[in-house]
Amino acid sequence: MADGFLMEVCVDCVESAVNAERGGAGRLELCSSLLEGGLLHIVKQYVKIPVYVMIRPRGGDFLYSDYEVEVMKKDIELMKLNGANGLVLGALTEDGRVDAELCMELLGMPIPFHSAAFDMVHDPTIALETLVSLGVQRVLTSGCDTTALEGLPLIKRLIDQAKGRIVIMPGGGITERNLQRVLEGSGAQEFHCSARSSKDSAMKFRNTSVSMGASFSACEYSLKVADVGKIRALNAIAKNTL
Fold first, then answer.
1. In terms of C-beta density within 10 A (0-12 exposed, 13-18 middle, 19 or more buried), how is residue 93 classed?
2. Over pLDDT 90: what percentage of the chain?
3. With 70 as the cut, is the pLDDT of residue 2 above it?
4. Are 111 and 136 in contact (CB under 8 A)?
5. Of 157, 166, 163, 168, which Cα lies nearest the Cα of 135?
6. What domain range includes position 12?
7. Which of 116, 150, 165, 171 could connect to 192 by a Cys-Cys bridge, CB 3.0–4.6 Å?
């Protein structure tokens, strides 16, 4: 926070992590199949900035079964052993409240609350007070809307409500074109972005008849990687705004 702001970049591979740090990111959110190839362990070898790890046993909603809670606890244990600086997670009850009891079971190191979970709560003002009472440090949110820009009015109200007790970090669709509006309109001191660009595969032989996943998945021969230039541009905008 030496520059008066902190930019968190979401990454899912070592190259993106390295690029994010080169571009000026202050913290990484690592979201991927973490145990494949020791991703966290290798990322920590190549970057010096803090790495927070997403704990998410599956896609979909945030109402977890006992089996899924077991998976989350084991993932947390492994991430601690591999040097995670913090965790990103969220859990809700069936009626859209923060599952305070489960969160207390899982807490144990600095934990920002996972964005999508917060943005799916029934009442964000009540949810925020619950998170404050749990000692959660940070809420990543798009203002319960499609993007942070669209959710800007709620983000501003949440920051006013927080009164410095918890960090409200806008995220979701933040780009060079809207970052200044998001920061000025919300008063936020931290923001979250992915700042990725497509990178063509180095594969010369390509079997275009086969897709390694669902038909709507990304092409195997195009990769999304954090873009140093985009991250530097966002960094410069934040410096000029805050």
1. middle
2. 80
3. no
4. yes
5. 166
6. 6-241
7. 171
Domain count of the chain?
1
pLDDT, tens digit, 9 for 90 and up, residues 184-210? 999 999 999 999 999 999 999 988 787
Give per-residue pLDDT as tens, 102-140. 999 998 877 787 777 999 999 999 999 999 999 999 999
Residue 104 lies in a domain: yes
Around Cβ 217, how many Cβ atoms within 10 Å? Answer: 9
The CATH number of the domain holding residue 158 is 3.20.20.380
| 221 assigned to some structural domain | yes
Q: How far apart are CA 214 and CA 60, in angstroms?
A: 16
Q: What does the pLDDT average to over 24-36?
A: 80
Cα 143–Cα 147–Cα 151 angle in degrees, nearest 5: 30
For every residue of 204-226, which 3-state class applies, written as one string?
A: CCCCCCCCCCCCCCCCCCEEEEE
Which two three-digit tokens encode residue 239?
């410096």
